[in-house]
Design brief:
This protein is mainly α. The chain contains 13 helices and six strands. The protein folds into two domains: 190 residues, no CATH class; 126 residues, no CATH class. Helix 1 packs parallel to helix 3 and helix 11 packs antiparallel against helix 12. The longest helix is centred in the C-terminal third of the chain and has 27 residues. It binds zinc ion (ZN).
Length: 357
């Protein structure tokens, strides 16, 4: 992703923590052969009053207790309990510093109860306002209210129909993290529904363990187009894009693979936007008296426009435009004759019509 979310967005995680404590209490009672207590005593005392009326939660925690008691082997129950903890070590899992058992590796007798409980718990985050609070914290701090997974989708303001909230570690695989804010990330609709889906971030298609960004703790990733050929792309006049990322880390590969970033940038934004961006450059240059009559003037115009693009941040794909004009400027500085001639003609006020790709 292009930038991280503020860690403060995960602080109001009381419901997840309460639920995990309750599950651990169920395990302790089953292991000690104690009876299940009257509701809501299975919950930590601090949250009993708040959650007493949540009968759906009551029924599902009790169903979990019933299912767990079907596991007569203590080692089976211990494997489930380990997964409760390990599936929630989100940052460590994503950094490949630890592993966890997926649901499919746990005894089948517990599956339905786990899925039912944690699906319900996730839905409760909306009722408890935790989901909206998290989104508002993120919305207020995210530059230009842009989806950081692609940089091209806008988030709508709090109060609008809710944005997708992605289970970063898919809940079908790692259900014990389904209500953990550290595993829940607002995401643009396209990123969520067309690309990420229920992809397992921890393993690639060949089953090899991989690393991925932890959304609540990582820095910025830049898009670099410097090595693109300014011509000979999808048409002879369009650049042959080479998209690089700075810094390039193993997590970038996972991000690009899962969200199809290079493919989307080339197809949907760079090829699509190039012509309009050249016209923007031309119109700006003519309005502001920039001349492309000499190589030095051309490079100066490109440098200035690149700077304007950079200053506009993430909105309206300005970060991609900045990378485009940086690439064009570098090629001009390096003496690319065909490109210089094309841009000279583009900026020349006496040229009535220049064919722009
Ligand atoms: Zn997106």
């Amino acid at each position: 992703m292009l930038f991280g979310y503020p860690p403060t967005a995960t602080q109001n995680n009381w419901f997840h923590e309460c639920l995990i404590q309750a599950i651990k209490e169920v395990h302790a009672r089953v292991d000690a052969q104690q009876l299940y207590p009257p509701w809501p005593q299975i919950l930590p005392a601090a949250y009993q009053a708040t959650l007493r009326s949540r009968r759906g939660l009551r029924d599902r925690i009790q169903a979990y207790d019933v299912a767990l008691r079907q596991l007569v082997s203590q080692s089976q129950r211990a494997a489930v309990l380990a997964a409760v903890t390990d599936q929630n070590r989100i940052a460590e899992l994503l950094a490949n510093n630890c592993n966890c058992a997926a649901l499919s590796a746990l005894p089948a007798a517990i599956h339905a109860a786990v899925v039912s409980l944690f699906d319900f718990a996730f839905e409760l985050l909306t009722d408890l306002n935790i989901r909206d609070d998290q989104f508002k914290t993120i919305y207020d701090e995210v530059p230009d209210h842009i989806c950081p997974f692609c940089g091209t989708e806008y988030f709508e303001a709090p109060g609008a129909p809710r944005e997708a909230l992605d289970h970063y570690l898919a809940k079908s695989l790692y259900p014990f993290a389904a209500a953990n804010l550290k595993n829940l990330v607002p995401m643009g609709h396209k990123c969520n529904s067309n690309y990420k889906l229920a992809t397992d971030l921890l393993y690639d298609d060949s089953g090899t363990r991989r690393v991925a960004f932890y959304p609540y703790n990582h820095g910025k990733i830049g898009v670099v187009l410097d090595c693109s050929d300014p011509f000979n792309g999808s048409t002879p006049e369009k650049p042959n894009w080479q998209i690089d990322f700075d810094p390039y880390t193993p997590a970038v590969l996972t991000w690009d693979t899962v969200f199809h970033i290079q493919e989307r940038y080339k197809r949907d934004h760079l090829d699509e936007g190039y012509k309009a961006w050249l016209w923007e450059f031309r119109n700006w240059a003519r309005r502001s008296g920039q001349r492309g009559d000499t190589d030095a003037n051309l490079v100066y115009a490109l440098t200035t426009f690149e700077q304007i693009c950079s200053e506009n941040g993430m909105r309206d794909k300005w970060f991609l435009k900045a990378a485009v004009f940086r690439m064009l400027r570098l090629h001009c500085e390096n003496g690319h004759q065909r490109l210089k001639q094309f841009l000279h003609d583009l900026l020349d006020p006496s040229t009535a019509a220049v064919t722009v790709p």
